[in-house]
TrEMBL record:
Record Gene3D superfamilies: EF-hand
Species annotation: Xanthocytophaga flava
Domain of life: Bacteria
InterPro entries: EF-hand-dom_pair (IPR011992)
Protein name: Uncharacterized protein
Length: 173
């Protein structure tokens, strides 16, 4: 596993590679980590590092998002000394909130939290409560047995956030 430290408002540190700083040019980033596996306009996906990078209109790095959670296969992201994809959802929210010391956008509470002062966002598609409700409804309709294993996996995934992103200063404002 490749250890990658997320450093809010600064960038990331990739073990054995070095720092990738926010506001760096696309050319500078490519010199450090190579060409992206896929590009779509200003968005570049690096499958090996399990993240995507977004560049602004001036081709400067403005956002880094780890998109292979909650169970990454190649990387081990860390932020503030913890592994966000191994930290249960509300515990992660509390840790980020303590570090943020400011406004938190809760408009999509339980699924999305954005911490404005540290420019960090976390996302998940469903909560444990969402999945439990789905299971209950499936049981009522006699549909649960056929998807039982899948729902068990979904319930486990729902304990954690699925992505974590770092933006440049004021990215979420």
């Amino acid at each position: 596993m490749i250890r990658i430290e997320l450093i809010p408002l600064e960038g990331i540190y990739i073990e054995s590679i070095g720092r990738v700083e926010l506001a760096r040019s696309k050319d500078e980033v490519e010199r450090i980590i190579g060409k992206a596996d896929r590009e779509d306009g200003q968005r570049c996906v690096y499958d090996h590092y399990e993240f995507r990078l977004d560049f602004d209109k001036n081709n400067q790095l403005e956002f880094i998002e780890f998109i292979y959670g909650p169970f990454p296969e190649r990387t081990q992201p860390e932020i503030f000394g913890i592994k966000p994809f191994e930290t249960e959802a509300m515990k992660l929210v509390n840790i980020l909130n303590e570090r943020n010391n400011g406004y938190v956008d809760l408009s999509e509470a339980n699924h999305v939290f954005t911490f404005h002062e540290i420019s960090v966002g976390i996302w998940r598609d469903a909560t444990e409560e969402d999945i439990k409700q789905m299971i209950s409804e499936m049981k009522e309709h006699g549909e649960f047995e056929a998807v039982q294993e899948n729902m068990k996996n979904q319930l486990e995934m729902a304990k954690y956030f699925w992505t974590i992103g770092l933006g440049a200063k004021n990215y979420y404002k």
